[in-house]
Design a protein that fits this description.
Layout lengths: L1 E3 L2 H9 L5 E6 L5 H13 L2 E6 L19 H10 L4 E3 L3 H4 L18 H4 L3 H16 L3 E5 L3 H13 L5 E5 L19 H6 L2 H14 L5 H13 L4 E10 L14 H7 L3 E9 L3 E9 L2 E2 L4 E3 L2
Parallel strand pairs: 1-4, 2-3, 2-5, 3-4, 5-6
Antiparallel strand pairs: 6-11, 7-8, 8-9, 9-10
Helix pairs in contact: 6-7, 9-10
The protein binds adenosine monophosphate (AMP).
Adenosine monophosphate (AMP) binds next to helix 2 and strand 5.
């Protein structure tokens, strides 16, 4: 495994390694969820590149950029053990040199949910992912369902800008009590860690009524809100029951029965953001083609 810090070095090293490439973009502080993406990339490509870059343009002025957890040595040890071929670990100056002024803006799907709470976040995400795609030149890129809106934004960008890359979405890995794995879980103290699975419980409560045929958006949202509000250590940012493609909220009127929903291919995304002590946690369940998504999904160019 080689670790490269500049675009020139990365391209030169990659050019000497022929074969199909899979890319796993990350911000480091790797956990089992990240590693599941790397394993999937290893299985489906001749060679794998992992980027580790805490991207400043996707953090708001009052967010945790400076405090974002980092442990490069440990990350490199983990990636080495998975036999990753190349690690791209640039500095902010390499990615955004002086006079940098080009950004990628995906319009409608970035305005709601995380985009409403974190203005500019997806402009930063789309920009850095477009740059990584251009720098690495992989055949396939791997993302986690954990960041559901990010997967929608990136798929939209790839389609709209005709990027020659397949996007593979991998399932969310969870702790034994249902808490979605996240680098930010490290901010949880013991008391808040015990409270954090409330997101998973809320999603399951909505899933249960959904499975009994409920399609009223208000009812699904109020069930999730009720579970979150029952946990005194949790502070709700938003809950959402939305169309999985447009990310527009499901309306309160009775929607078509499940069979029809499946037939039209209209997925439903249940999602939420909740502050549990210090960290702001996100989680989601995705219902598509008549079932809850549990495996990986490939979107071909
Ligand atoms: P991050 O380092 O947070 O930017 O995450 C890098 C990639 O790992 C993103 O595509 C995330 O969606 C994915 N990821 C993060 N947490 C998980 C998880 N618990 N399960 C699966 N993938 C994840």
């Amino acid at each position: 495994m080689q670790t490269l810090n500049t675009i020139e070095e990365f391209r030169k090293t990659k050019a000497a390694l022929p074969g199909s490439w899979g890319l796993v973009p990350t911000m480091g502080y790797l956990h089992t969820g990240h590693l599941s993406l790397v394993k999937r990339a290893k299985a489906e490509n001749d060679l794998v590149a992992v980027s580790i870059f805490v991207n400043p343009t996707q953090f708001g002025p009052n967010e945790d950029l400076a405090a974002y957890p980092r442990d490069l040595d440990q990350d490199l040890r983990l990636l080495e053990s998975l036999e990753v071929d190349l690690v791209f670990n640039p500095t902010p100056e390499v990615m955004y040199p002086p006079n940098y002024q080009t950004y990628v803006t995906v319009e409608h799907v970035t305005k709601v949910l995380e985009g409403a709470s974190r203005p500019g976040h997806f402009r930063g995400v789309a920009t850095v992912v477009a740059k990584l795609f251009n720098i690495v030149g992989a055949e396939r890129a791997y993302f986690g369902q954990k960041d559901a809106q990010q997967t929608v934004v990136i798929r939209r960008m790839v389609k709209d800008l005709n990027m020659p890359i397949d996007i593979i979405i991998c399932p969310t890995l969870r702790e034994a009590d249902g808490l979605a794995m996240s680098s930010r879980n490290t901010y949880l103290d013991a008391e808040h860690r015990r409270a954090a699975p409330v997101l998973y419980r809320a999603l399951n409560a909505a899933k249960e009524v959904f499975d009994r045929g409920e399609r009223d958006g208000d009812h699904l949202r109020s069930i999730m809100r009720g579970v979150i509000e029952s946990e005194p250590l949790a502070k709700l940012d938003y809950v959402s029951a939305a169309n999985a493609t447009t990310l527009q909220e499901l309306d309160p009127h009775p929607a078509p029965p499940p069979s029809q929903t499946a037939a039209t291919g209209e997925g439903v995304l249940l999602s939420m953001a909740v502050r549990v002590g210090k960290p702001r946690l996100i989680d989601n369940f995705l219902y598509e083609n008549g079932q809850w998504l549990t495996g990986e999904v490939a979107y071909h160019r």
